Predict the structure.
Amino acid sequence: MARILVVDGDDRYRHVCAMDLRNEGHDVVTASTGFDALRSMDETAPEVVITEVQLPGMDGLDLMGRLLDRDRKLVVILNSASCSYKDNFMSWAADACCQKSADGRELRGTVRRLVERRSSLLSPYVWRKELAPHVGEETRRAS
């Protein structure tokens, strides 16, 4: 499936979330702070990062910005108990936002959908059949 980095300051939630995603077949690593996540990013090269917004030391929005500076193709999911961060335009760079819950169905479904979308966008078949014919289309329309 996917290599996922789960970043959350709550040890119990981080453990349960990681276990839940491993049961779905994902390779999961965890970090408790944004700084630990940056180090882990270098070591594990995840495809998906799930981060809480309120982290000790560096918030999840700042972490997301730093991670996306390193890898623009990285899928980022903001997973928070609070919705107040959605007013911050930085949150718009996330691929998805989930309400943090003990019931992991929403998060699992979001991960599944984004991983499928990412893998289909990266597949050569999709490139040849769906994307390549449209490359330069905006330029052709403007002329």
Notes: The first strand starts at residue 3 and ends at 7. Strands lie at 3-7, 27-31, 48-51, 75-80, 96-99. The helical segments are 11-23, 34-44, 60-70, 105-122, 124-131, 137-142.
